[in-house]
């Protein structure tokens, strides 16, 4: 279970590093811009989570995450030098899985420190979306998570599914699967059918 | 004293959550944009303070703050759906009280860890203004605290009043009241008479 | 050695505070804008480093840094009121030295906590460039570190020089000097001959 989450966490970091590198490519950044955007997107959310929970920051404890970030960015750069085509669609699907996994990792880590369920759901959401928020703020984009399609709300609903199964005292693995499936399905559905959540009345 | 500060702190969080929600409304954000802006404005300053002082983050220890943030955002959303009128003026007055209280909470928390007075004043100011700064950076506004009317300077002067009374060895409650009154009066005066603090010569 | 690094660290903080104040002057900010930009640029990188390494934040432990920041900002303000001429060129040279020193301080602090070399290089780079990144994001500029001339890459190469000498088990002072010289020379060279590091193919 532990090592299985570790591998999926590394996969999530790699996907986010690729998405940061693509943003740097779109913005015609060079050199360090790529390094900053790839790392901020990949480890930003988990870093903030660990600092707030007063845990050791995950990529300081385990250097694998730094290497994966660098390798993912490097492969993306080489790919983009060879061809200007990039399978953006598959990246969005992979990103949905990364979001769901970061969400679960955040919830589990928060519960492990003895935090309450409301805090755990907040931590899951922060882990999932803060990296992308940072990427967009640095690039002076209107953050994607702040407008349009369901994005971070899927983390909150996924956290709600975790909380439900947790309250029913089902085994830990069921809670994890419930949160993963809920988050991924909601996110893919939102991408496919452009689900939105209008809270203000528009004239 | 302790519980009295707790209640006022909750009030400050609620006021900031409302101001974040209003900004999301103005920017035509939806769904998660409201959640991000309301929470960042409400708990951003205190979170940074607690992380820098290496204290447990206040809303992780006490979930009340998360619930108050959500309820304040929800009531604001319902209000804005019912009517497009909003008493912005009263909000600014309430915001001045919230600023003063966050300032005092930051100073007290910093002094409680054994920090010096200069650090305590910096912590009070950070607690008071960082949430609003975050809100404006996320929305790509020129941060309000960075230009025009006295805003954060009122925190520094309020902290100076605290330091003066503290040095005179007056009881703790007097220091708190001095800082609150100084900050609120300066801020209300700055709003009423548009006080500014020009540091550069303009041609 | 210890006190020698302390003095150079104070010098780095002063240079960054001056650069933040100059940015506030260019943006026609007033009052608190100057305070925010000067402090964020001067202590932002070190604060993030200390929070991630779970060390006491350096300016909370040693108030000297706060005073140096305020005095450097004040002198810059007085200078700019007396004359609109400012030796920007010398500031850039001083900034290269500040960058190199922040880099070395970050590496040494990270190694002191038992972190690996990859993490130490990342910490050196973060200490060197995060303050300037923060300054540019707050001012809604495209961060300078993200485009054009070599800037943060010089920190990474300087960290590589440190790592090389460290692996050869040379005395600590040699590692420090190697990192300082490499970073300063690369940065001055990049400024003089406009070295760039294009990673994406441009049409």
UniProtKB/TrEMBL annotation, chains A, B, C:
| Transmembrane segments annotated in the record for this chain | 6-25, 32-53, 65-82, 89-107, 113-134, 146-165, 171-190
Family, according to the entry, reads as follows: Belongs to the UPF0126 family.
InterPro entries associated with the record? Gly_transporter
Broad class of where this protein is predominantly found: membrane
List the top taxonomic levels of the source.
Answer: Bacteria, Pseudomonadati, Pseudomonadota, Gammaproteobacteria, Alteromonadales
The protein depicted here goes by the name: Trimeric intracellular cation channel family protein
One Pfam family this sequence matches: Gly_transporter
The listed locations are: Cell membrane
State the membrane topology: Multi-pass membrane protein
Q: Per the database record, which ranges form the Glycine transporter domain?
A: 7-79, 93-166
For this UniProt record, give its keywords in alphabetical order, as a comma-separated list: Cell membrane, Membrane, Transmembrane, Transmembrane helix
């Amino acid at each position: 279970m532990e090592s299985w989450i570790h591998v999926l966490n590394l996969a999530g970091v790699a996907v986010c590093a690729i998405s940061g590198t693509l943003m740097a490519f779109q913005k015609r950044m060079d050199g360090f811009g790529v390094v900053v955007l790839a790392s901020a997107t990949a480890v930003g959310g988990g870093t903030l989570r660990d600092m707030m929970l007063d845990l050791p920051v995950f990529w300081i404890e385990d250097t694998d995450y730094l290497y994966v970030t660098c390798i993912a960015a490097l492969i993306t750069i080489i790919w983009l030098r060879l061809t200007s085509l990039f399978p953006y669609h598959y990246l969005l699907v992979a990103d949905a899985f990364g979001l769901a996994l970061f969400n679960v990792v955040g919830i589990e880590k928060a519960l492990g420190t003895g935090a309450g369920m409301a805090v755990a759901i907040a931590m899951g959401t922060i882990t999932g979306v803060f990296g992308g928020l940072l990427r967009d703020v640095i690039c002076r984009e209107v953050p994607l998570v702040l407008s349009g399609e369901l994005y971070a709300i899927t983390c909150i609903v996924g956290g709600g599914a975790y909380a439900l199964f947790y309250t029913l005292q089902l085994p830990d693995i069921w809670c994890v699967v419930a949160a993963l499936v809920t988050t991924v399905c909601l996110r893919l559905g939102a991408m496919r059918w452009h689900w939105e959540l209008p809270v203000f009345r528009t004239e």
